[in-house]
Design the sequence.
């Protein structure tokens, strides 16, 4: 039997930035939470869209589209979907907490990415502990 998951409590179980935790699954998708601050890395998911919901703080996502580069700003409570194959780079000046929907096994740095800085975790999601 599954039990309700309180997202604030789930987020309190870890401190690592850009290192998502899997809180549950829906069909073949992971529901992940992450804490972020600073810059991620330019990357793209070739075969899947990426869903973002900002739980707290503010997230900016830079996008490289056919029409050129642009950025979208997501305040607390906003959702945004990055279409499959679109290069993007999330960042948060002051930090944010996110909820993400991605197919199980999706790598957090996509199928194509720039060189990874040490603060970005290349993972398919970690189990939630605590």
Sequence:
């Amino acid at each position: 039997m599954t039990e309700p998951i309180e997202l604030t409590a789930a987020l309190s179980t870890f401190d690592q930035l850009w290192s998502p935790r899997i809180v549950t699954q829906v069909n073949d998708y992971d529901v992940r939470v992450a804490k972020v601050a600073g810059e991620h890395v330019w990357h793209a998911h070739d075969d899947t869209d990426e869903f973002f919901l900002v739980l707290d703080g503010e997230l900016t996502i830079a996008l490289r589209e056919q029409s050129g580069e642009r950025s979208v700003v997501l305040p607390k409570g906003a959702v945004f979907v990055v279409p499959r194959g679109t290069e993007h780079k999330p960042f948060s000046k002051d930090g944010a907490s996110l909820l993400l929907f991605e197919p199980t096994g999706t790598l957090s740095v996509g199928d194509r990415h720039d060189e990874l800085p040490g603060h970005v975790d290349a993972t398919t999601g970690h189990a939630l502990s605590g």
Observations:
- The mean pLDDT is 93.
